[in-house]
């Protein structure tokens, strides 16, 4: 950001009023992000029904989400390149239309391979929106206002994910078929397309910072400059760990709670739909608290501690890890206590969302922010929520085979609540629960690793932010970071 250039009217981050058009634009972006994440996790809310329909195990069940995220992350760099150069509204319209259409068509599929293919196509559509939308907010606002608008935008992620469980499970219950769980968000997607086309404003790139008509550089040069930006690299690595945990918990969380609850007295016949509903409410509530809390802490602490943003992310992960671990350990012993533990763990995890997005925007030049968003999406999803559902599912299936063949594992001693059980006495339900439980323990380890990456970010963030603010040239749009 060039501090010597005056900010245009209504674009400052402090005292200038926010225009009605800007408010409408932010509302539309938040609405689309909400239904975007609703669509992602609708399948998670009806996963058990889907597995029964196609007669698949945990590995192929996890592959449904992995296939979606793989196509999502592969296409993100393409839309990042296009988003830095072409009309962003039309790109978003294309994306929303594609994922709405393929979700709706997929609800009529009666073969696993076709359903898997339809979920992968959904990822292509969502890649366009998720890559581009944050850069529009960045080009409309700066400083505190931008941070607050990003918090509002990313607030839709946990809330939308929670609604996905609820909409999927409740629609399946009301209409008596899991297929109807996939037919709600496409209708909302059509509404979103009309709003984007006729009500949304698209600002010029760099407009909020007085840098209109920026010159673009080659895509390869953009990537090389981003790689040299250590704050961006380390924060992306930390966010990858967040994505891994979020993906594994969002996909398998309702399932592990359901399997654990079935083994408790009086809950033997509980349905997955009811547990998915409870998990969705927990996820929504955690998002309502966690995302705004992260933004609040950032605003309050960053004034006195310039390294506050990555430190908040790191501490949030370190707090979340033991709570989620204990929630998994006690999942077959207590129900309401486990809900509380997961709730606290998700609040701490949700501190990251808006802060990581803000870090990217204030350490990267406006003319390559879409590329930076795409690069972060590619990395974080490749090693995060693209791999975690399938990886956890594969580990779970491997452990099932070991348990059924009476092969003892040193890992069994980790489960404090079950250390007296003998593997040879496991019933099938117990084996299914234990195998998924052990596999999900990996998430807590990944959270600690993510905290380390954010501590590394804190070491460089002040210097990289200063470079981004002082080196940007309004004449040629060149920026070494």
Automatic annotation (TrEMBL):
This is Major facilitator superfamily,Major facilitator superfamily domain. CDD domains: MFS_spinster_like. It is a multi-pass membrane protein. The chain crosses the membrane at residues 63-83, 90-108, 149-168, 180-200, 232-254, 274-298, 310-330, 336-364, 436-456. GO terms for cellular component: membrane. InterPro entries: MFS, MFS_dom, MFS_spinster-like, MFS_trans_sf. It comes from Cinara cedri. PANTHER family: PROTEIN SPINSTER, SPINSTER. PROSITE patterns: MFS. Residues 25-462 form the Major facilitator superfamily (MFS) profile domain. The keyword Transmembrane applies.
């Amino acid at each position: 950001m060039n501090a010597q250039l005056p900010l245009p009217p209504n674009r400052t981050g402090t005292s200038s009023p926010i225009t009605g058009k800007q408010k409408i634009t932010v509302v539309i972006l938040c609405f689309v992000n909400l239904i975007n994440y609703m669509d992602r996790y609708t399948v998670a809310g009806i996963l058990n029904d889907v597995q029964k329909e196609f007669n698949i195990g945990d590995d192929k069940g996890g592959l449904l989400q992995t296939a979606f995220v793989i196509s999502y992350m592969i296409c993100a760099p393409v839309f990042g390149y296009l988003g830095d150069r072409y009309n962003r509204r039309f790109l978003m319209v294309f994306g929303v239309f594609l994922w709405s259409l393929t979700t709706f068509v997929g609800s009529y599929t009666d073969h696993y391979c076709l359903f898997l293919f339809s979920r992968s196509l959904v990822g292509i559509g969502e890649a366009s929106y998720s890559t581009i939308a944050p850069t529009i907010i960045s080009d409309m606002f700066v400083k505190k206002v931008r941070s607050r608008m990003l918090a509002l935008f990313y607030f839709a992620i946990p809330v939308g994910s929670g609604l996905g469980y609820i909409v999927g499970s409740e629609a399946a219950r009301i209409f008596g078929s899991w297929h109807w769980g996939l037919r709600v968000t496409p209708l909302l997607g059509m509404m979103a397309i009309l709003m984007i086309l006729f009500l949304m404003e698209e600002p010029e790139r760099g407009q909020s910072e007085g840098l209109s008509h920026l010159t673009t550089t080659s895509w390869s040069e953009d990537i090389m400059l981003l790689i040299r930006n250590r704050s961006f690299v380390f924060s992306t690595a930390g966010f990858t760990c967040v994505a891994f945990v979020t993906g594994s918990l969002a996909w398998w969380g309702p399932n592990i709670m359901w399997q654990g609850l079935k083994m408790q007295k009086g809950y033997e016949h509980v349905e997955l739909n009811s547990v998915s509903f409870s998990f969705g409410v927990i996820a929504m509530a955690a998002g309502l608290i966690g995302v705004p809390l992260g933004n609040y802490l950032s605003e309050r602490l960053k004034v006195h501690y310039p390294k506050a943003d990555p430190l908040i992310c790191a501490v949030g992960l370190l707090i979340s890890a033991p709570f989620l671990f204990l929630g998994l350990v006690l999942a077959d012993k207590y129900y309401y206590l486990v809900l509380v533990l997961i709730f606290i763990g998700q609040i701490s995890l949700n501190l990251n969302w808006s802060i990581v997005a803000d870090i990217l925007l204030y350490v990267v030049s406006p003319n390559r922010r879409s590329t930076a968003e795409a690069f972060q999406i590619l990395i974080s999803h490749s090693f995060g929520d693209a791999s975690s559902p399938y990886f956890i599912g594969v580990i779970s299936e491997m452990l099932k085979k070991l348990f059924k063949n009476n092969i003892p594992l040193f890992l069994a001693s980790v489960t404090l609540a079950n250390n007296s059980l003998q593997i040879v006495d496991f019933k099938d339900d117990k084996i299914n629960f234990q195998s998924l439980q052990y596999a999900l323990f990996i998430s807590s380890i990944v959270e600690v690793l993510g905290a380390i990456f954010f501590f590394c970010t804190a070491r460089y963030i002040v210097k990289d932010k200063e470079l981004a603010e002082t080196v940007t040239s309004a004449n040629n749009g060149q920026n070494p970071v």
